[in-house]
Amino acid sequence: MKSSPATVLPSLIATLAVLALGGCTGTEETSEEAPPVFSLAWSEYPSWSVFGVAHIQELIDKDQGKLSAIEKKWNVDIELQEADYETCIMLYGASEVDAACLTNMDALSPSLSVPSVMILPTSTSDGADACIVVDSITNVTQLRGKEVHGLEKTVSEYCFVRNLELLGEQESDHRFVNMDPANAAVALQLKEPTVEAIVVWNPFVMQTLDKRSDVKVLFDSTSIPNEIIDAVIMSQSSLDKPGGENFACALIDAFYAVNRSMADPATADETLADIGAKFASLELEDMKTVVKQTKFFSDPEQGKGLLTGSELPEIMKKVVAFCMNHDMVDREPKIGYDSQAEADLRFDATYIEKVQTDL
Amino acid sequence: MIRKAISKKTRFSLGFFSVLALLLGYTLLSDYQHRRNPKDTVIPNWGQLGEGVQKIVTPDRFGERWLLVDAQATGLRLFLGMTLAVALSLLIGIHMGCFPKFEALLYPSLSLLAKIPPTAAMAVLFVIAGRGYALHITVITFGVLPTMAMAVYLAVKSFPDELQFKAYTLGASHSEVVWTLLFRFVLPKLIETTRLTIGPAIVFLIASEVAFESSGFGYRIRLQYKLVAMDVIYPYLAVLAGFGFLIDHLLRRLERRLCPWSQHR
After folding, report:
1. Going by C-beta distance under 8 Å and a sequence separation of 6 or more, which residues neighbour residue A261?
2. So what's the pLDDT on residue B213?
3. Do A142 and A115 fall within a single domain?
4. In this complex, is the C-beta atom of B262 within 8 Å of any C-beta atom belonging to chain A?
5. Preferred mutation among B12, B228, B230 to probe A, highest tally of A CBs within 10 A
6. Among residues 190-209 of chain B, which lie with CB inside 8 Å of chain A?
7. I need a surface site. Which of A99, A174, B44, B202 has the fewest CB within 10 A?
8. How far apart are CA B188 and CA B192, in angstroms?
């Protein structure tokens, strides 16, 4: 068959146009009775896997179009998307999801383009981030001039820099060298001679201490309580949508429900095993340590306490300063601490309170 | 009729149209995304991309021009890795093609290795090579050597018997047959295989930079990805595409220069 460009082009354009139109109408399809759909991106981490467990326990159905107990209660349809941590940041930054599980630090960068609200702190690192060194290093001063390996511009480097500060060291005397945490842990476990100090997070902290007996924790995040906060971050525009607040409340409700089943001796072990299933190949006993080092804000009082407490503004000042010093944000994000504030990132306990009065 | 030749003008305008369609598609996508969120940085518009380009070519606080530093690091790693891979594959391929004992010895393990993605075997390579250049070169070599050696070996196998007999009849020694005939027969195939494996080599190198490095394209792309700074990442990808296009072009020219006897253009 003969086909010149003149006949190919119009049909090509027509096809593209049809595809584009199809794509547009497809996203706007919602029937009137169905509850509004909202989505949460989460990655495998102890206090975030809670949402995966909420699906297992039939509190939230992870698929769109299916409702479980909590979704019916708040009349929202929640879609749970599991992804890599970095992909979660990207999905959230692209407004492809309404909320994501992020740390307070990693929420700053996307908040510059997507005004955001921390609706629920889930846990804080209390030993889950650690600097592990070979036994011959006994003092932080011995780290000067040595390469310390960890992932740059993350909580690992933050934990390192903050601990140097607390120990009276200058950041400029130390070298933090970029390496993926999984590989840094392997390098230390394999006794790679150039790798004598690493800063990693769990499960790598536990795995490394488990596999090699001649290494130890030089310092960890227990010295900076509540500074590394794992949380659910939701975009302001999604909160303003009809049903947005109910979505926030439903997530909070589900989070505390799973926490209650973790506290209940009858269901505790099974819940914990579910939380740890994909996180790492750790025994139940190890998982108990992991959960201890990742301190859950397991009831509304603790969550509210953090969001409205007087130490949070001080902490965020340090975190923002770190991000500015390490070129992680283009401009200084504005932080707000009440429900009215005009800010890039807002901390708001309103939705926790709403769920609490309901419990 | 299929496979009918078209005029140069038609060819050029169709190619131009496809690139234009790409750019237009991107503009539309970016526009759509900015209508959803005017401050979006995931699909930056052309102005934002301009700022990103500014950012990667002007010195940062430490006086480093990112693009320059990264291009140097990645370029050298890729060059060293590919050089080693080409040299080894030539050596191995010719030996396998010429000597059936080598063939019997190496064929099974090479065809097994060819199926292992080096990105998944990073830990093993890490134990073998340690860190730094050694690691990147090993990753690239491990990734592309089996394919390249196999291509050289098959090219040697396809060397016509009559040419070999003729050369021996005219009194050529073994090494003369190998270097003046076989090598020239294999060379265009080798260059073409190199051209086709540069793409995978870049993928492997970037994966190992993502995991282990503090400079280079893989390192920068990963860090900036986490900061949702796509205005930096897309120009980097454009540079990679341009670089690939350039290498491709240079290798084609090299093939034409070195092997004017070669059949394919």
Report:
1. A57, A267, A268, A271
2. 85
3. no
4. no
5. B228
6. none
7. A174
8. 6
Break chain B into its structural domains and give their ranges. Answer: 1-40, 53-258
Residue type, A214: D
Could you tell me what percent of chain A has a pLDDT over 70? 90
Check whether residue A236 and residue A336 sit in a common domain: yes
The predicted model scores a pTM of: 0.82
Minimum CA–CA partner of A186 in chain B: B123
CB–CB contact A112 B225 (8 Å): no
The answer to whether residues A75 and A217 belong to one domain is no
A141 with A289, same domain? no
pLDDT attached to residue B264: 53
Tokens of A208: 């490394």
Residue B155 has pLDDT above 90, yes or no: yes
pLDDT of residue A207: 87
- Output helix, strand, coil percentages for chain A, rounded to the nearest 5: 45, 20, 35
Spatial separation of the C-alpha atoms in residues B187 and B244, rounded to whole Å = 21
Query: Distance from B75 to chain A by nearest Cα, in Å?
Result: 19
Q: How many domains does chain A have?
A: 2
pLDDT at A281: 66
Report if residue A277 sits inside a domain.
Answer: yes
Which of A223, A256, A289 is the last residue before a domain boundary?
A223
Inform me whether the C-beta atom of residue B178 falls under 8 Å from chain A C-beta atoms: no
Asked whether A262 and A272 are in contact (CB, 8 A), the reply is yes
pLDDT at A16: 52
Interface test with B, best of A19, A103, A183 (most B CBs within 10 A): A183
Contact A75, A35 (CB under 8 A): yes
B53-258 CATH: 1.10.3720.10
Question: What three-state secondary structure class fits A96?
Answer: coil
Q: Which of B122, B131, B213 sits opposite A194 (nearest CB)?
A: B131
- Of A205, A223, A241, the residue at which a domain comes to its end is A223
Contacts by residues A314-319 (CB-CB < 8 Å, ≥ 24 positions apart): A315/A104, A315/A226, A315/A227, A316/A104, A318/A162, A318/A227, A319/A104, A319/A105, A319/A108, A319/A158, A319/A227
Say what the ipTM of the complex is. Answer: 0.75
Same domain, A211 and A330: no
Interval B77-92: pLDDT, tens = 999 999 999 999 999 9
pLDDT, tens only, B177-217:
999 999 999 999 999 999 999 999 999 999 999 888 888 99
Q: What is the pLDDT of residue A8?
A: 52
Statement: residue B123 has pLDDT above 90? no
CB contact under 8 A, A86 and B223: no
- Can you give the CATH number for the domain in which A42 is found? 3.40.190.10
* A280 and A298, same domain (yes or no): yes
Parent domain of A254: 37-124+227-358
Q: Using CA atoms, how far apart are residues A266 and A83, in angstroms rounded to an integer?
A: 31
Q: Residue ranges of chain A with pLDDT lower than 50?
A: 1-6, 18-31
Query: pLDDT (tens digit, 9 = 90+) per residue, B253-264?
Result: 999 999 888 765
Q: What per-residue confidence (pLDDT) applies to A167?
A: 95
Task: Let me know whether A150 and A199 are in one domain.
Answer: yes
Q: Which of B131, B209, B210 to mutate to test the interface with A (most CBs of A within 10 A)?
A: B131
Long-range residue pairs from A20-28, CB within 8 A, at least 24 positions apart, any chain? A20/B28
Shared-domain flag, residues A289 and A304: yes
> What confidence score (pLDDT) does residue A2 get?
44
* pLDDT of residue B41 exceeding 60: yes
A9 belongs to a structural domain: no
